[in-house]
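Run Type I restriction enzyme S subunit through structure prediction, thanks.
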Amino acid sequence: MRFSEFNDEWEEKYISEAISIKSRKYNPENSDVNYRSIELESLAQDSGELLSTFDSKNQKSIKNVFNSGDVLFGKLRPYLKKYYLADFDGVCSSEIWVLKSSILDSNYLYAFVQSNSFISLTEILSGSKMPRADWNLVSSSLIVYPSNPDERKKIGKIIQLINSRIQTQKKIISQLKSQMSNLKDLLFAQQLRFKDENENNFPYWKDFRLSDLGNTFNGLSGKTKEHFGVGQKYIQYKQIFDSAKINIANCAFVDVEENENQNIVQYGDVFFTISSETPEEIGMSSVLLENVNNIYLNSFCFGFRTNSFEELIPEFSQFLFRTSKFRSEIVKLAQGSTRYNMSKIEFLKLKIKLPCKDEQIKIAQFLSSINEKINIESELLTQYENQKKYLLQNLFV
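Sure, done. The structure for Type I restriction enzyme S subunit is below.
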């Protein structure tokens, strides 16, 4: 894949002839100069973001000096793809390569280290507990690049532009999620209220115990690993943990006999994780908002089925059970030391406040509209990331 205006031959060199990792050393104990310091954890995974910097005078280890325009690449666990195009002079951990080139401009070099051509060279590792990329191996390999500097600049520029667009898209999503969280807290604390169609206030919210609203039911029982992979759909633990709304397309399969005594899920059921590795992850919820047939629930979760949608509508449930207030109450139910579990009996004793059905509908519609916006922006982010992946695969040899 090339730009139409270029037809020059590409050049081939050993990487050691085009790229260097030589940099001055900085010892904070022997220097009066204070730099911004980048550690490996400062670099985001596979995005080029700089998450943080540190004060070099407060650190003891010897660092590598880098300059604005140098490309940093994390050699420790390189499969994490931690890279950064420096826009300031500073120092960095010895676990980060400082890449320089007298031939390639900074943007092209930065694009090259993100390409499969470079990443594949770093995947042959030395060390087991702390695997590192081997520069001797990388530098003795070949790099093929455009001989025309204008073509190199154009390739570097287009990757830079799409990187910038991806970062902007991530910020848009982050802001929407923050807005969603803040509005949800205000709505469920009743600090923000809707009015009815006649601009009248809705009634005060009422107190309920969960046992007043419905009952729990168990997931699959009596299944071994031989039963999974074929048969009927079942909702997996991760589906519940990852999203407040069940996506049926992500279900797995389990073999269930025709007359077997197993609970079948239905529209409006709320599912909760009953076991987790930390107390903070116990009781994560997700709601089924589709009409389905013959779908089951995994054995590490339980379902909650309401008695009446006049008291609690499913669309409202998807937000209610993930509010910070409810989550703080449910975390208190976690029991255990290495693995945490939750009692369904204690779960049913929890109290919640509910608005009338009409206000539930308004709140659910309002928050769903923000959710839909987040989903649209997330899909757009995926398209940009796929576009970048395609370009990196096809613009480099």
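The chain has a mean pLDDT of 94.
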